[in-house]
Each structure stands twice: as C-alpha cells, then as structure tokens.
Specification:
Structural class: alpha+beta
Number of helices: 5
CATH architecture: Alpha-Beta Complex
Number of domains: 1
Helix content: 25-40%
CATH topology: Maf protein
CATH class: Alpha Beta
Shape: globular
C-alpha cells in the first residue's frame, strides 16, 4: 500500500504534517509508527543538504520500498542580527537536550538592547522527498518575522514563543494550529511538496 514515511520523531511536527497532507489520502507515518529506528548524522551545510541526507538515510533502511515515499525536513530559525544563527544548528543550539525555554531566553538575552527594526528573523523549512523510483524532490518554505522580547503563547513548539509576526500582533505560539498551518514555513514547504506529489499522481 502506498504510504508516506516522514523522518521525524517530533510529535508536534508529525501532527502538523498529517493535517496538511491529509488531502492526498495517503497514510502518513512517523518513523516510530513505521517501525524504523535510525540516528542519522545531519552534517550538511544547508537546510537542503540536511533534508536530503535524512530522507535518503531513512529510505535506505526500508527493505521492500514498494510505493513508500520518504519525506524529511530540515528547518530552523535565522536571526539576521546574529549572522543568521542558529540556522542549520537550530535543533542542536546549546545542545539537543537543552530545553527550548532556555534556548529562547538565551536568544532574547543576546538581543538585549537591539531595536525592533534590527530584530528581523525568519523560519526556514526545506522538505526532501525520496520517491519509490529514487527521484529526489525538494521544496522550501519561509516565513518572515521578528524576535520578540519575551516568550508568548502556549501553542506550537521550539522557537515559536519568541517568533513574533508584526502583521498579526502575535507570536507563532499564539496562533491556533489551523492558522499556523496556513502561513508557516513548514506549511508552505509541505503545500508545495503536496503539489509536487500530486503532479506525479501520488
């Protein structure tokens, strides 16, 4: 049976992905749900490289690929004032075991005294797909915003509470999931990927 295996163990992320991809009418499984256990080293220098490394790594672990489509993403936060840190190291910033409350506070502290107009930032997400025939497809989504002065909101995860959307006067953690999916970097990249898969009659 045709299925999509998404290379993530992040529950918040897989929930977003299942919601956005449901129109395809193809089951979306996390690695855990698919019974795949892998610790893939993401040593690329760009979001694109890391997403492809992850997708190819998981695809190689599926024995009889059949009609399985493997998707993987690499995403992160780029803060212009900090030379686009944490960037591709967003998940590993200050150590993977460090809570995002601590990471978020550290970034706020590093921007202390920085005026509003210089707090520009963006979330970036690149999704890579390895199709059953081995073809690799990538899509990229971004959302522009600013780094807030404090954590706000309880929805979302990661850096969402400090990523402020001036047009909406909210952080991404203050958006309802359906609002976030309409505008988020991952939502944009997933919608484009959904179109790429639909073009290929998947």
């Amino acid at each position: 049976m045709k299925k999509i295996i998404f290379a993530t163990g992040n529950n918040g992320k897989i929930k977003e992905i299942k919601e956005i991809m449901k129109e395809l009418k193809i089951p979306v499984l996390s690695m855990k749900e698919a019974g795949i256990h892998a610790d893939i080293v993401e040593d690329g220098n760009t979001f694109e490289e890391n997403a492809i490394i992850k997708a190819k790594g998981v695809a190689a672990l599926i024995g009889d690929r059949g009609e399985s489509i493997v998707l993987a993403d690499d995403s992160g936060l780029e803060i212009d004032y900090l030379n686009k840190e944490p960037g591709v190291y967003s998940a590993r910033y200050m150590g993977e075991e460090t809570s995002y409350r601590i990471k978020n506070q550290n970034l706020i502290d590093r921007l202390e005294g920085v005026p509003d107009e210089k707090r520009t930032a963006r979330f970036v997400c690149v999704i890579a797909a390895v199709l059953p025939d081995g073809e690799i497809v990538t899509t990229r989504g971004e959302i522009e915003g600013k780094i807030g002065y404090e954590e706000r909101g309880i929805n979302g995860f990661g850096y969402d509470p400090i990523f402020y959307l001036p047009d909406m006067s909210k952080s991404t953690a203050e958006l309802m999931p359906e609002e976030k999916n309409l505008i988020s970097h991952r939502g944009n990249a997933l919608k484009d990927m959904k179109e790429e898969l639909q073009k290929r009659h998947m």
